[in-house]
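Today's session is about reading a structure prediction critically. Students often jump straight to the picture, but the first step is always the sequence itself: look for stretches that repeat, for charged clusters, for runs of hydrophobic residues. Only then move on to the predicted structure, which in these notes is written as discrete structure tokens rather than atom positions. Here is the chain we will use throughout the hour.
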Amino acid sequence: MRSAVEPLKARRIYLLLRDRIIAGDLPPGTRLPGEPALAAEHAVSRVTVRRALDLLDKEGLVQRKAGSGTFVHDTRSVRPIVADLSNVLSHLIDMGRSTDVKLLSFGYGLPSEGIAESLGMKPGERVQRSVRVRLIDGVPFSYLTTHVPEWIGLTYSEAELAARPLLELIERSGVTTERATQAINATLAGPEAAAALDLEIGSPLLTLTRVVYEPAGRGVEHLHALYRPDRYSFHMDLVRTGNDGERRWSPALGWPRASDKGKADKTKPEKNKQGDKPTRAKRTTKQRS
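Below is the predicted structure for this chain, in token form.
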């Protein structure tokens, strides 16, 4: 029984220390109490404390220096990916070029019933399936499983998929991507995703399922993506719209993102010649997703 409880205690201590580090209560450079002090504080064994510190070290939140102790690592240099939900397709290719990708599998076969239905495929039609891990600053942040119709997959090679963004390859085949639907949820990391993302099995993950369509309504890509929540987040700027009594929040399409304020005067709304309504400046921010 004790062997089953100890990992849970270690994770509890890990989460307590992690929350304090992320909240800034333990700033970069702070030396954590030694293992004996932490063990006494939390009424656990030193082995349990060591497991908790190992989890923090693995996540890059602390640095363990032999003979000196454990110090809070400066995580401000780690730049998480931020995805703009208000424009799902904009700048996806640019994002692909700014990160690295590792291709884990590539092949052809029959899709599952759910994927075939999402892509609007006929019985017997095959898909090209790939699994990739995307990295930013050398660390993995997403585990991507994609399915595209075979007739599109045959237009690019395994080597090209390992080196170029999938959306770019799809559009190179002559397909025009017009719209997409997506759903966002939360899940737990299974063995394969955990190993690829350098996480413990059962760690929380963000999950996104996206289907991209061409103008005729055919599905050209089905994406199931798993993201580390500490290295990836979803963002949307909102504005108040509607008449009195029916006011609501709507996506701030065409308006500068909050993070871009002050970068240039041209990003601010300007009065038109009649002076009755503001005209919206074109957004220049690149999306990352």
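Discussion point for the tutorial: Confidence is low (pLDDT under 50) at residues 88-93, 262-289.
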